[in-house]
């Protein structure tokens, strides 16, 4: 039996706990949250025996093997370092931190302690994107030349969140930076951004953007382009295309059903699944399962701390490119 | 807390139990199976406390509210009648029986006992087919004129099963007969069959067919056509199209992913999901949830015993049409 | 230079003449029509030098190599027999006649005269259907088991036409009967029909139907099913699917463009091309080119008189099946 | 009758002449080509009476209303200015010239002479792209935020052509720059390029690139991104997507047929149409028809000299951005 401590029982924390419930020989033993009374009913419904507001109850419990860090981003690196000291494996939500040096130090601490670490880039486990990766790895498109990622949310987050989110690149596009690395198999060398505030001027006043086109140049010479928007009227838009020397592979959005209606006006179908909870349901399950498997078998996790660190470097370069209106080398950021 | 007794823990029985596990305030208390030792490990993994080979342990337990009948078809009607006597609600897999009179009597017994009864036509709960039904009900295609159902299995069942299955119509096409009624909103009046043995001559020697085109005429004058095959090289093929006075709606197969590869040879994607366990995963969950909800709220179940009876009548007419090579009226069968 | 005589300059006759205009070394020399004054402007615009109301002007002109018979169906066989006598190759629109014996005799007359004859089943030349045929012929779906043809018009013809059209089977479904033979590579043995009047009761009063499901059994044991409707709200619906022992191939409708709009309501695209003039534009061109090529090279035409005769036999069996409500053997009709 | 003079009877010149052949009341009266003997047979087949190697035979013929300039790019502006003097309307293939000042002067000369001028941006007439434009104009996606253009050729041109083509931006991407303006309804303000040589190092040695991602910023604040490749293994790849405040619209490639084959390996269909002759067949016809209509009715042409000039400005900015590795303002180029 593997025992898990969950730190932070917000939306994502709850998803992980519910997914663990369906797996044999693993349980969430303790959940720590700032407001434990709010999650008691939920914790009971998913058979978590201990609810606390003290993370020490997790770090000091020798029966707990691993922690899931799902609290606010600013708390992550401190918790990771405490986990390293306490000898707990770590699954940490993205981004690891807002500060590239803190991220580096936290990842290093876990590495020194020879513990498992997984960054929460769940999209790698999406059956669509993982099929794209497989076909690339099998050489079915030859050498990748151009990666195109479409990544648009159905609606902007609340202003309160935007203020503390770290901005579009660190909060939202970081998933796409990881996806670009995941699909490319090469490291990013240079980043160039065209950003805009087209959806809500208030987002601009909060010193963020809501629309961006980001071009990446990889060390192997290939290119990637990501377009982000905070608001797609038709819901979550998450597509990928990879063009290579021998062919091209792409994936489309997922739809709640395939029903198609033809009438005198035209042909109509329902819009895509609304947001990440629907679209990435399966990937969340596979993600946490891969972490448990890594602990159990001692294999490397499929998304390392280095992966979290590299994505943050790209986000940092993107912010710099936006501010200085020029292509920015990753090597300037490290 | 609703307590369930499960009779028969084969593939379908296990699916229902696993789905119930994820629902609050309902549990499978006892499972009865002919070979209890074979299912003990599984029963423990899904937290079923009691495993038995005596159905009496279920019928005589006053705390048990409902039974799921997932045993062999020839045992169904006897078990339904015992459930009626014992005052247990019944969920029964399709077909209810091989004998239309026994089916009628069993359904009537439950009705007299004022208990809930649901027939296991899970496909009604598939998000694709239910969206078709919704759009028809909303009048978006006007009056239905032609219903077309494609229903093909990836591979024929073993000969041993074919011998006792009741044949293609009662074992396999019965789902399609129910789908036709579900989508039409009218009752079938006449059935006409063209059948063939094209896949495996041994199926013909077992007095069954492996390929069929069945035409239905409804009381409202509209038509339906179903094509069945026991073996589609590309997996499970389950599609529906409804053509009406104002438009047409159709649904396609479900695919494991949307990845599409273009190269010098053409455009390629993975084949559809392999069989019913993958394709109807979501519909099985919704099906059993609807039964639990009906017990809890006292509402009618969404698929009644009458629905099971009507589908069997159509299957019987189809067998007769095949044997006598003529259109057969449902009224001849009742 | 090949010289053509066109008999009947209605919609179809004009299409053929316009297509011939674009081909080198062939010209329509004379057009004969009941009301020549109505077509003079058109004839000039497509460079046809002679306009007449006397078919003799065509049959007696020794420089004319071939005739296109595009006049009313009841005139066809007489014209074919005169062409046989006059030594002109014949392209004849479908159906060849309303009387199977007349059709047989006319086809035989051309055969005895060792002239070319092509029946106007243009759909065989559609790039979609011809690709299906190619893949079947290459063995890519193994042995065909089930052929499914959807064939629906955007609107019923005028009552005046319905009165003289010969009915849904001989006027409309005859194309589908030919398509079934074209794709199957086997001959039809038995026909079974379920027909209905669902669109317009007046069509019933004119002793026709507007909706039909026709099942065909081929000599090789395989099956086909055709569904016909006189009125699809969304335009011309012309699709085919062939299911075989090793796979399945299908073609969809053609659309005027591929634009797809996603918004808060769903996903929307334009309806399919409206009717045969748009959908079969390319097939009409290829059809008449194949006839000219056959004359030039002395090869067999790709759609023979026998093909026209066989499709009429099936139509006749379908009418009989509808009237007598039973499966009808083709051998009963010959 | 409108009389046309064709200058240059290469591939594109021949397409225009063949399309004019099908239109009433317009003819190509004279064709001028460097090697007239090579085109005599072709000219006869499309009924062009005069073949010459002297453009004066066109400019000095008072019966000629308009010229189609389809010769090499370096000859364009001189011919345009001679047409202005001779009082002939001009249809000119893209690009107008390799020199932005020459382009400006030539366009101005025609304007002063109050003659019609159309630049050969045929893609605007493609039924797919024009439907996208219509829906944008109708406000169906709200305000455009992001335009995405995919534009990939099936194979690089010969080295000899690359040497004189003006490079990827002026030869190939200029179509995409025009498409971006056509769809946006705003003018480009800034261009930023990431280019690479990934297909053939020799292209790099010829001082060109074969792969590019170009980001455009429009005056209205919106963004566009274009990805170009000289070699797509699966043929011509020409797609567009426009994302706006209220929705998104996109168009896909065109396929030679819709046949889809499912078997044990997966689902397969033919690759898209190979190159521009197939893909843009319809747009070439509509393009030249629009030019003839403009002459006939005196309306403005749908693609003006200004449109040609603006696209060249963007190409020039793209070349500069590539060379200097920075975002470049259009205002720097004018």
TrEMBL record, chains A, B, C, D:
The keyword Glycosyltransferase does not apply. Pfam families: GFO_IDH_MocA (PF01408), GFO_IDH_MocA_C3 (PF22725). Residues 2-121 form the Gfo/Idh/MocA-like oxidoreductase N-terminal domain. InterPro entries: Gfo/Idh/MocA-like_OxRdtase_N (IPR000683), GFO_IDH_MocA-like_dom (IPR055170), Myo_inos_IolG (IPR030827), NAD(P)-bd_dom_sf (IPR036291). It is an enzyme of class 1 (oxidoreductase). Residues 129-249 form the GFO/IDH/MocA-like oxidoreductase domain. Its EC number is 1.1.1.18. Keywords: Oxidoreductase. GO terms for molecular function: inositol 2-dehydrogenase (NAD+) activity. Signal peptide: none annotated. Belongs to the Gfo/Idh/MocA family. NCBIfam families: myo_inos_iolG. This is Inositol 2-dehydrogenase. The lineage of its organism: Bacteria, Bacillati, Bacillota, Bacilli, Bacillales.
């Amino acid at each position: 039996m593997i025992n898990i401590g969950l730190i932070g029982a917000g939306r994502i924390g709850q998803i992980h706990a519910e997914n663990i419930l369906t797996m044999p020989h693993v349980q969430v033993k303790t959940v720590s949250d700032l407001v434990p009374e709010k999650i008691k009913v939920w914790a009971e419904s998913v058979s978590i025996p201990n609810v606390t507001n003290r993370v020490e109850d997790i770090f000091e419990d020798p029966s707990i093997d691993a922690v899931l860090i799902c609290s606010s981003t600013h708390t992550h690196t401190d918790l990771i370092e405490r986990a390293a000291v306490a000898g707990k494996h770590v699954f940490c939500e993205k981004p690891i931190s807002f500060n590239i040096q803190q991220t580096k130090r936290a990842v290093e601490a876990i590495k020194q302690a020879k513990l498992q670490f997984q960054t929460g880039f769940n999209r790698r486990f999406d059956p669509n994107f993982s099929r794209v990766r497989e076909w690339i790895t099998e050489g079915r498109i030859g050498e990748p030349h151009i990666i195109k990622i479409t990544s648009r949310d159905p609606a902007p987050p609340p202003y309160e969140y935007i203020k503390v989110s770290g901005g579009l690149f660190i909060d939202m596009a970081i998933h796409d930076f990881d996806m670009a690395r995941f699909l490319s198999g090469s490291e990013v060398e240079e980043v160039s951004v065209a950003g805009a505030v087209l959806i809500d001027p208030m987002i601009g006043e909060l010193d963020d953007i809501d629309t961006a086109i980001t071009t990446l140049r990889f060390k192997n010479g290939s290119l990637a382009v990501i377009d982000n928007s905070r608001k797609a009227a038709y819901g979550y838009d998450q597509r990928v295309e990879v063009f290579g020397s021998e062919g091209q592979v792409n994936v489309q959005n997922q739809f709640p059903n395939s029903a198609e209606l033809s009438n005198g006006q035209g042909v109509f179908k329902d819009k895509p699944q609304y947001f990440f909870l629907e679209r990435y349901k399966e990937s969340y399950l596979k993600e946490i399962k891969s972490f448990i498997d890594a602990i159990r078998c001692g294999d490397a996790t499929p998304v390392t701390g280095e992966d979290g660190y590299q994505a943050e470097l790209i986000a940092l370069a993107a912010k710099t490119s936006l501010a200085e209106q020029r292509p920015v080398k990753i090597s300037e950021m490290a």
